[in-house]
Write a structure and sequence with these properties.
By secondary structure, the chain is mainly alpha-helical. The protein folds into 2 domains: 2-59; 73-268, no CATH class. Helix content is 62%, strand content 0%. Helix 1 (2-22) packs antiparallel against helix 2, helix 2 packs across helix 3 (127-134) and helix 5 packs antiparallel against helix 8 (246-268). The longest helix is centred in the N-terminal third of the chain and has 66 residues, at 38-103.
Length: 269
Amino acid sequence: MKGFVAYAAPILSFVAALVALLGPSRKPDMTGVASLTAFGWAAGCFALIALMFTLYNAKSQQDAIRQAQAQLTSMRKVAQSEFEHGTELILNILRFAALMRYTTVISPGPEDRLPYDDAAQIDLRSKRTLDDLATLRLDPAVRLGLPYIPSAVPFSPSSKPAMSILMEQSSNAIAILENALQTYSAKVVDAEVMESASVLARDPFLKRLTTLDAEWRARSEIEDSTRPETVGVYFLGKTSPNPAPDQYLELLDKVDRLRAALNALVSKQ
């Protein structure tokens, strides 16, 4: 039916022209509508029907374009939400790690009180955060000392070891980004979003966080010790305190790049 409608207008226009050629369309001794002959009326009717089909086709095309644009906008919003979920999860992982100095104390004292009311307030590039992360020695048995509200401490309350939380959530973040990359093509989001998300999902520091248990076991064998206080596995990836935070900061740069690309995508909608 749609194929017939698409070709109806040109066919009817041709028929109208053919009818007009077959015989006189007007009576020479009369004027106005009364001057139209049977051929003239037939040609006019065919031309009118052709016009109606043309207008119908034009409206159908506009409706199809608007529907496609609406679907594209909807898919972009869903894609944007998934990529944003992945970046926010990564930031919460880093916030969780930055708070472990305060949250994994079994009997916290006044000096161990949370320095932030909301984890979102943490400046992940600040000297304080970098100092806390640089000295964060990982222990596979350590858990949160108290139940905290999720806005203050991401992933809380939880009875899982803090290191397990870091590994699980890092794996979740990578899975979210990879799933979004596989689901949404460059037609839905632009090439910069796809490239930024791909680079972020393959980040070596983020990948390392998914295998902290294997790193800890390997390090404990090297040091011939299972005592957490002597096994030198630190959050920033070095075997001694105060390592350079280069890879950590590179991860933050990649998160910022993807978020900037997503913001640019919103402005295009």
